[in-house]
Design brief:
Elements (H helix, E strand, L loop, with lengths): L1 H18 L7 E2 L18 H4 L6 E2 L9 H20 L4 E4 L1 H4 L1 E4 L6 E5 L4 H14 L13 E5 L19 H11 L9 E6 L6 H4 L4 E5 L5 H14 L4 E4 L17 H9 L3 E4 L18 H19 L3 H8 L3 H10 L1
Parallel strand pairs: 1-10, 2-3, 3-6, 6-7, 7-8, 8-9, 9-10
Antiparallel strand pairs: 4-5
Helix pairs in contact: 1-12, 3-5, 5-6, 11-12
């Protein structure tokens, strides 16, 4: 009996280790997937609407403040959203910026004007990372079975937010934030992502610290976007790339409903493209609507997302177990008995 138990334990360990190498190389999920899908909805409610055709739940919501009390609330929000992602059998990208920067706001508009250096970044991030491990949302070194598979360091850091390169070097505040994530043994192997605004201008050195990088600029035509994407890759070679099609109507001159064709082509033919992140699922106050309320876009992106999710979920037994919600032991027993 003991021999059988030991053999089963060895088999389970082997199965877990062997399947851990089957890492999905394509993700589909709307930018800010946790944003309120309608003005009257709650944070995270959109997951129920999109869970069947995404394999990456992009989390961006936070309190907007960096005080110790706000960080406790931000951590609780992230953990709550991870519980929903795990229950939906969807991988997730967690936001780092609420924990690794000090936000400075314009008192009149409330807009963030600077992401300043935070000397407590490592401790703040460690609190979240340990909680994610303790509650089973993060399994370090095992992205197949882990809910958390990536970290979003901050949005558009090359904008006017005090993170531009300085004297030919990456900004110290940005380096400090990156180090908080990368030097934490629980998150050291997670890819660190960011979407820039248009290009890497004044951010060339800092951009090299990213694992996944992309840009957003919705006024581009399909032709212009292809040229810009090629230029972006040339300026930042050797990375995994994020593509961000605009997918909203009547939401202002800076946000467009882009032709999906060049983005779909890039996603399906370019192995360096890792995440397709349409902007966005949500609809705001009328007449501003997003993918959920644009029938043609909803059909297109649902089909693309299903294709990507189904490919990931069929790659290995551990992927199948994650997507179905079965335990790892059950998956191993299925393989052993069948």
């Amino acid at each position: 009996m003991l021999k059988k138990q030991l053999s089963l334990m060895a088999f389970l360990l082997f199965t877990s280790t062997a399947n851990a190498q089957f890492v999905p190389d394509k993700y589909f999920g709307y930018f800010g997937g946790d944003f309120q899908p309608t003005p009257s909805a709650a944070v995270g409610d959109g997951l129920a609407e999109m869970k069947d055709h995404i394999n990456l739940f992009s989390m961006q919501a936070w309190s907007g403040f960096s005080t110790p009390a706000a960080r406790a609330g931000n951590q609780a929000m992230v953990l709550d959203l991870l519980a929903k992602a795990k229950a939906a059998h969807v991988h997730a990208m967690v936001p780092a910026f609420p924990f690794v920067f000090q936000a400075v706001r314009d008192p009149s508009s409330g807009r963030i004007t600077c992401w300043n250096n935070d000397p407590t970044a490592a401790a703040s991030w460690a609190s979240l990372s340990q909680a994610m491990v303790d509650q089973g949302y993060l399994i370090p070194g095992d992205p197949v079975r882990s809910t958390v598979v990536a970290v979003y360091i901050v949005d558009e850091p090359n904008g006017d937010v005090c993170l531009s390169d300085s004297n030919g070097q990456a900004n110290p505040s940005f380096v400090n934030a990156i180090n908080a994530v990368r030097q934490d043994p629980r998150t050291a192997t997670l890819p660190i992502a960011s979407i820039l605004s248009r290009d890497t201008h004044d951010f060339e050195q800092a951009a090299k610290l990213l694992d996944w990088a992309g840009f957003d600029y919705y006024p581009y035509t399909a032709f212009d976007w292809r040229l810009a994407f090629n230029d972006f890759k040339a300026s930042l070679p050797g990375k995994k790339y994020i593509i961000v099609p605009g997918a909203m109507e009547n939401c202002g001159s800076d946000i467009r409903d882009n032709d999906p064709s060049p983005f779909l082509t890039a996603m399906n033919t370019d192995p360096s493209v890792v995440w397709m992140a349409p902007f966005m699922w949500i609809s705001k106050a009328p007449p501003c609507i997003g993918v959920r309320d644009i029938p043609a876009r909803r059909a297109t992106y649902t089909q693309e997302g299903l294709s990507i999710r189904n490919a990931q979920c069929s790659r290995s037994q551990q992927d199948q177990a994650f997507c179905s919600g079965r335990t790892n032991v059950s998956a191993a027993l299925d393989l052993l008995l069948n």
